[in-house]
Amino acid sequence: MINKNLVSTQWLNEHLDNENVTLLYTQMDNPVTGVKETAPKNYIPNSIFFDFESVFCKLDSPWPHTMPSENQFSKEIAMLGVGVSEDNLIVVYDNKGVYSSPRVWWMLKSMGFKRVYILDGGLPKWLEEERQVDNSLTAPHPIDQVNVNFSPAFFTTAENMLAQQSTVKIIDARSEGRFYGTAPEPREGLRSGHAPGAINLPFSELINGTQLKSTSELTSVFESLNLHLEDQLVFSCGSGVTACILTLAASQLGYRNLAVFDGSWSEWGARLDLPVEV
What we know:
Layout (H helix, E strand, L loop, with lengths): L1 E2 L2 E2 L1 H7 L5 E6 L20 E3 L20 H10 L9 E6 L6 H10 L5 E4 L2 H7 L26 E2 L1 H6 L4 E5 L3 H5 L18 E2 L6 E2 L2 E2 L2 H10 L7 E5 L6 H10 L5 E4 L2 H5 L10
Parallel strand pairs: 2-6, 3-4, 3-5, 5-6, 7-13, 8-9, 8-12, 12-13
Antiparallel strand pairs: 1-2, 10-11
């Protein structure tokens, strides 16, 4: 089943050998210690690794995970053999369920890829259902350079957020303690607190086990925060990854005016020229 931005494990199983389906696996290392995540023992067959931490990122940025240039993205996605053809359908999954895969989904969408979906439940659900696996990732087959088309509207900057304080709602995916400044930031050198006027919505409130909550459950969460479909929403977190879980949930509900603050708290909390509330 395809549900807006999500595909089920059953649907993927039925389309696994379809030559027009590209399967991308991703994971995120410990964002604080830098310790490498243990590689899974098994993967879904035909999976190619999408590395958004050290390949598909702005390598000279002081903030982690920030978007690469259009040219860099174009070259790297061609190295993976992934084209922008309308016939090509991309499914992204990760090692935790719905965690880092929404980041890759949003990156691809911002670069003009239309048919991009997230595997709801990710690798954990696939393994739990004892579906077919490979013990290694698939080696990519590079193609000629892919002409991507980056849309800046998918991401925003600290300067834009300050300038648009009266027209946008900033939604912060970090934990309540970090948001209110009662718990220290895990990254060194960052202030505690949140951007003025921001609303706290920890990403964990949108997840049931390894899957995104149902539409009715997500609706209740968003309505409790007095959010409306016509609102302009900017999502932030620690480093621009779990903010995309919120973006995914909003998109599932039909919100259209969505942007991710790419630098997130890694930037805002470090820059002394930006105001902080606790």
